[in-house]
Amino acid sequence: MADEVLFETTVPRTLDAWVERFAQPRWRGASVEGWLFEGAVARRGAEQRLRSAGVQATLHSAYKPLVHFFLEQVDCSGLAAVTVRYPVHPRASENRFLLEAYPLAAMLPGCALAFEPGTDNLDYELALTSKDGRRQQVNVFAPNRSHTGPTGIGHLSPTGWLRVHGGGASSIDAAQPTEHEQLFEQVLRTVLDHEWPRAEPYFERLDIRIDLPGIEQPLPMAGECISTHEALHEDIYFSLLEIFQRRSGRVPGDRRLQPGQIVPDVRAGESPRLRIALRGFEPAPAPAPAIVASADRSTPLDELDTAPEPARIAAEMEGLAGQRFGAVSLQGRAVAGLYQQGPSAAVFISGGQHANETSGIVGALRAARALKAQGDAHFALIALENPDGYALQRELSAWHPGHMHHAARYSALGDDLEYREQAPLYERSAREQAVARSGAQLHLNLHGYPAHEWTRPWSGYLPQGFELWTVPKGFFLVLRHHPGWQAEARALVEQVCAALARVAGLAEFNARQLALYRRHAGEVPFEVIQGIACAVSEVDRPGAPVTLVTEFPDETIHGDAFRFAHTVQMETVLAAVRAWQSLARR
């Protein structure tokens, strides 16, 4: 079936438009200072072209301007002390601009860095002291605009800006819409104005393809990168979820929403363009046995340094003896389940509910192997609960392996399968079979979250509804229990944390990330046990009476970091299974 194109356009590149505008003779002798969403190389090139036309130009990043100031204009190795007074604006959260300064605290090792709240003036006010005793006062402008989003919420969002003085024309000091803002707003308008069906799902796949210039700036610490392409993907995806939630009459953040599969595909390009289209998806059958059997196993499971191919996951599941069960996804992919009966207390192990959180998939498979080797294991296993999302994760990662890809988080229906309540259940039915077959009172649900900063710059910067997740805070645990299971839950989390304290490298990893979190976000809003943040709550939801959710900052990581992540996931499962043997109700 051919795509149904809803909208297609190109827009001028803001950087080129500014160069063309201010290179005109009437601006000769002018001073131009601008902020826009471009990388340093492109900005320096534009400055040179304007200098050739007799214009003194300085172009800054409108995205994370304070961080770019230290990257581009300061010799950080020569600093002894820095005090940052960050803006506190009534239309933003109190720590918004402190978070936008992330990860400055990690960029200035050995420097005495202090953050202080300032005024609603949109400038970071800096006091810099060099190691040779020189002092300097600097203001770094953070251009923002106040606006109302499509669901009626007010935002203060980064924007383009121009300050122009001198030459033969009037001075300018005002916000300027850039191609990023124009294309983002066009996506929202197109979706808002379209005549959608009355009932969910509204489509099979909604493709939003954007090509435009931007920033892909690796930072001088592992795993961190400033990316406007990733940020635009995130902002489009969650903005459209909010629009469809409102259209359906659901409350904000309702994970039962089933709009269809929303796919923002944002790529680097010189000429900004947008194409929005509806596509049908072709059913994707499960791998044939011959394909599964030939899955590449040359790399041992414990040495995998990136998310495995679906055929490898299927082959690992096939290699474990036990009773088979499962389900079929909306797009026709198999959800493979395994039940191993034994004399010990049963547990249910799952990974890949959110398919862009990939370390739990490998951790679940490794844990199952280790439990099988013990000889008395009693468990149900679904290593990959969301194969449709995982297919999208692999599709998007082919272009941007270091991005979070939250479009792959949910199912092809667009919902979170854990919250699915009505038939057809598709993937959800495999989970229900796992609990019914095993009788497990404990569900070990392996998850991840962003390994670097998560932002929505054109909707107020912080990810609305997920503000606690905007910067990493190490590996942590979420424990949910039914009424009456508080004692078992408490004992479980304390014993698991005690065991994890002995996992090589985890204490140091957590201490480092928690320290950086506290500098930019404040105190962790959870209890910390043995150096591990833990959130324990009572819930009344279907499933096992106790659920232990792992959260490793694994989105975007590869190599040794990925191996460490799935090792921690495995060790958590094994520790929980050991502890549960004396806690389960017989």
Please describe the structure with a list of short key phrases separated by commas or semicolons.
globular, 4-stranded mixed sheet, 586 residues, Aminopeptidase, 26% strand, 3 domains, alpha/beta, 9-stranded mixed sheet, single chain
CATH topology of the largest domain: Aminopeptidase
At the fourth level of CATH, the homologous superfamily of the largest domain is: Zn peptidases
Q: Roughly what is the average pLDDT, rounded to an integer?
A: 95
Number of helices: 15
What gyration radius follows from the Cα positions, in whole Å? 25 Å
Can you walk me through this structure?
This protein is α/β, with parallel strands linked by helices. The chain has 15 helices and 25 strands. A hairpin with a 6-residue loop joins strand 13 (216-218) and strand 14. The longest helix has 21 residues, at 228-248. The protein is globular.
Topology:
Blueprint: E1 4-10, H1 14-22, E2 31-36, H2 40-52, E3 56-61, H3 65-73, E4 79-86, H4 96-100, H5 104-107, E5 112-117, E6 123-130, E7 135-141, E8 144-148, E9 154-158, E10 160-165, E11 172-176, H6 179-193, E12 205-212, E13 216-218, E14 225-227, H7 228-248, E15 261-268, E16 273-279, H8 289-293, H9 310-318, E17 323-328, E18 334-340, E19 347-351, H10 359-374, E20 379-382, H11 387-397, H12 427-438, E21 442-450, E22 476-481, H13 486-500, H14 506-521, E23 527-529, E24 532-538, E25 546-555, H15 560-580
Parallel strand pairs: 2-3, 4-5, 12-15, 19-20, 19-21, 21-25, 22-24
Antiparallel strand pairs: 1-16, 2-10, 4-6, 6-7, 8-9, 10-11, 12-16, 13-14, 17-18, 18-20, 22-25, 23-24
